[in-house]
Amino acid sequence: MTKINKNIFKAAWSYDEAPESTEHVQIKKQYDLYIDGKFVKPSKGKYFATFNPSDHKEIAKVAEATKEDVDKAVKAANRAFKGWSELSGKERGKYIFRIARLIQERAREFSVIESLDGGKPIRESRDIDIPLAANHFFYYAGWADKLEYAFPNRKPKPVGVAGQIIPWNFPLLMAAWKLAPALATGNTVVLKPAETTPLTALKLAEIIHESGIPKGVVNIITGAGETGAAIVNHPNVDKIAFTGSTGVGKYIQKATAGTNKKLTLELGGKGANIIFEDAAIDQAVEGIVNAIFFNQGHVCCAGSRLFVQESVADLVIEKLKRRMETLIVGNPLDKNTDIGAINSKKQLQTIENYIKIGLNEGGEIYQPNCKFPKNGNWCAPTLFINVSQSHRIVQEEIFGPVLAIQTFRTIDEVVEKANNTPFGLSAGVWTEKGSKIFHMTQKLNAGIVWANTFNKFDATSPFGGYKESGFGREGGLHGLKPYVKFE
Known about the structure:
Elements: E1 30-31, E2 33-35, E3 38-40, E4 47-51, E5 58-63, H1 67-86, H2 89-105, H3 107-118, H4 122-143, H5 147-150, E6 156-158, E7 161-165, H6 171-184, E8 188-192, H7 199-210, E9 218-220, H8 225-233, E10 239-243, H9 246-256, E11 262-266, E12 272-275, H10 281-293, E13 305-309, H11 313-325, H12 345-360, E14 364-366, E15 382-385, H13 392-395, E16 402-408, H14 411-419, E17 423-424, E18 426-430, H15 434-443, E19 448-451, E20 466-467, E21 470-471, E22 484-486
Parallel strand pairs: 1-5, 7-8, 7-10, 8-9, 10-11, 12-13, 12-18, 13-16, 15-16, 18-19
Antiparallel strand pairs: 2-3, 4-5, 6-22, 11-21, 14-15, 17-20
Helix pairs in contact: 1-8, 2-4, 3-4, 4-6, 10-11
């Protein structure tokens, strides 16, 4: 393979800083738990700090919920269930529509808080996360009075109290994925955001309170793993919805086995992104960048395994390297930034360990020239070539901006390689032939397959995985089913 001189990629110009203003953002110094329609102090009076990953500065103190607090929240949800479930779908929909509109009204504030707390570029928070979150509330508000059409010839009833645990990579969006269908179908909720990114969920609690929704219908509590375990194991929680790591998902499945709890799990992934020789190469290169470097690679459905047909492999890799040299890594609030800060020191260590593993296993690394800020959690976009199916960086989820590249010759070969993983969440296919796309969708063991694009989401489209990527679907008509039972 031709050796690339990085100096030829240096641009003849540079971008001036374009930071998003934070003057319109209101962040409290300390946040309490939102239980039974009001903000209350944690029973043991403990608080933990949430930090800005781009400079390690403390943003706010957040309440740490104990078993006692979880019990209070579940009891409040149980008390509210009868009134909320018996409310007409039209009336429930009004509250959900109101929440959607309030998110839209405060979209700028939400986007800045999401980038401050999570490290993702403001362009992504502003243009993807926040609009999609509002869209989910709008979409499911529309279903609230049409459930008989969603499930014809059946009588759907709400399950009861839903315990919902969401991850740190898309905090507000994951809250919307969970809350909107649960509320539309008449359930009440106890939601726990991730301990490293609780602020947009707590800001959402303020909006929910402002919407006038009956007290106890939505309860938002904060904490770490012990708080989540208390929700999972509470006897009066009827439904568990979890998005997060496969390891924790396995624990939850064991904990709920033998109970009457309904369960949906959206877990890890190791998505295959497949480039055929007849693909539009420049478009495909942009798709590769979006597939793995979007949100610093903190995406369960990221296209972290790239398969390129052998005849165009050199060309694709050369163009990809050129494109990587133009990516800007830095301040998440700068509108020019392409790759923001890694969410936490712990996650940065995990990514760096996998990069060392890739090198020790004989992979050939490529990283562009990047200038990082002095403080914060930073990782250069990284790709590995000369790796095989047995390499750990090919088989295991890294959850960072690290791409493993392999080549293939035939369709049968790439299908076998793509499916040779414990995961089954996502895949991408790049080709000019529609027949080839449809053929691949039948062969790939993935819950979602993108055609000539990657990482595109819509409230009307279901999302979920197979194998160790979990079960159940969120989004679309399918997203209503986990929150109903039938007489």
